[in-house]
Design a protein that fits this description.
It contains no helices and 39 strands. The chain is an all-beta fold and about 425 residues long. The chain has a 24-stranded parallel β-sheet that branches. It has a seven-stranded parallel β-sheet with strand order 1-4-7-10-13-18-21, with no helix packed on it. A six-stranded parallel β-sheet has the order 3-6-9-12-17-20, with no helix packed on it. The protein starts with about 40 loop residues before the first strand and ends with a strand.
Length: about 425
């Protein structure tokens, strides 16, 4: 897909208010509602409620600025419905954060010709902290350029906000969806988008480029929001990200509903990730159905917990084809590098044209024998598939209830673990 990106001058940001129609302190310096600014570089207050920001004179390189007047960090807090109109340019000072919380919302809607631009005052990776959503109302970013924002806000191993767009210290369950489309996210010192505690809704036709971490970290709960309409590589800008994969982690729990994970054109990565401590397994629970489409590729970091698991009635349907298999590989391509796929008290899963490589860590926690594919009290159909380089059994089956069945058509390759290809106590 050809994209033409117009990056307007230098931009900045806005912030938050108390959600009432009364102006916040400092808002009196802003133009009246519905009136565009008559001058350039209008200063933004530390809090903004419900209002609209419009572009100023065409001669302006920046319409609004948020300045850090402290020796440390500074926040613009949005507690009302903040709207930003096409062509509006906001510029952020160093060590500032745009915080959308406490029932606030941000609706920035530009156009292809006149994007909304939120940019650091300097073209330095992570010059400002980016946008952080926490207990927010439904928000939309469409045709928005978020430039040189994204750093680690907050102490400890689990930062409060981390990314050009991220979730805050609350939980995604307390926040309404944030929809992002037709936008450019570039120049973060960490990941472009961090889905930790972010209720990510639609995510379409975006470019993530020149971010020093991953293009995006996504919770399993919201991974179906992603598709190949996005440029996760940055190649359309000629500016690749520090890590070209999509970081996937966490739990998918949506009883009796189906979620679909697609081929993104880059691998999904499950594993460790630097300073921030995320789980190294992905778990599907409670009668949820996960479908993984043809051509999808996964890479798993090393360790006994690096795995994809179905629990308590959940089902995994892998729909590869002969020409587009689903590949589940290891970063470190040695036998038993990662744990593998596990089905425990699960529904009937079906795997077709899947390649599972270098799994079967012998030190993982299993009922029965370890295996690259481990089945406990579950039914499984696995057809026209490959298990390559397992560090233990290729397939391990433990305890089936009456009516549960196993149907396998699997090619086992490079099996030198000393364990049987099929380990079963039934």
């Amino acid at each position: 897909m050809n994209r033409k990106w117009i990056i307007a001058g230098i931009a900045a940001v806005l912030l938050a208010g108390c959600g009432t129609s009364q102006p916040e302190p400092g808002e009196d310096n802003l133009p009246p509602e519905g009136v565009p600014p008559a001058t350039c570089r209008v200063p933004l207050p530390e809090r903004i409620g419900t209002r609209t920001l419009q572009k100023g004179p065409d001669s302006c390189d920046v319409h609004y600025v948020f300045t850090n007047q402290t020796p440390g960090n500074a926040r613009l807090v949005v507690n009302g419905n903040l709207r930003i109109e096409p062509g509006t340019i906001l510029e952020f000072d160093e060590n500032t954060l745009l915080s959308v919380d406490r029932l606030g919302s941000l609706n920035a809607t530009g156009t292809a010709a006149e994007p909304v631009v939120l940019r650091g005052a300097q073209a330095t990776h992570g010059y400002w902290y980016g946008i952080c959503f926490d207990n927010n109302e439904e928000s939309t970013l469409d045709h928005v350029h978020i430039l040189y924002g994204g750093h680690i806000w907050g102490p400890g191993e689990t930062p409060l906000c981390e990314g050009a767009v991220s979730g805050g210290a609350g939980t995604a369950n307390n926040s309404e969806p944030v929809r992002i489309s037709n936008s450019l996210i570039m120049g973060s010192a960490v990941s472009g988008v961090n889905g930790f505690n972010l209720n990510l809704g639609e995510f379409r036709n975006n470019v993530l480029a020149d971010n020093q971490g991953f293009p995006i970290r996504i919770q399993a709960q919201h991974a179906s929001s992603l598709d190949a309409s996005n440029d996760f590589t940055g190649t359309s800008m000629g500016l690749p990200n520090g890590d070209g994969r999509v970081f996937l982690w966490g739990t998918l729990r949506d009883s009796h509903n189906e979620h679909i994970w697609t081929d993104l054109g880059v691998p999904w990565y499950v594993g460790e990730s630097g300073r921030s401590r995320y789980g190294t397994s992905v778990n599907i629970w409670d009668d949820t159905t996960l479908q993984i489409q043809a051509g999808s590729r996964f890479e798993f970091g090393s360790g006994t917990s690096s795995s994809l698991n179905a629990w308590d009635g959940a089902r995994i349907l892998i729909r590869g084809t002969a020409t587009q298999p689903v590949v589940m590989d290891a970063v470190e391509q040695t036998p038993g590098s990662w744990q593998g796929l596990s089905f425990s008290n699960a529904g009937k899963s079906e795997l077709e044209h899947v390649e599972i490589r270098w799994a079967g860590n012998p030190d993982g926690l299993y009922v029965g024998s370890p295996g690259a594919v481990h089945v406990y009290l579950s039914s499984l159909v696995m057809q026209q598939s490959i298990i390559h380089g397992s560090g233990s059994c290729a397939v391990s089956i433990a305890n089936l209830h009456e009516g549960q069945t196993i149907d396998l058509q699997v090619e086992v390759q490079e099996h030198h673990s000393g364990k049987p290809e099929l380990c079963s106590d039934v």
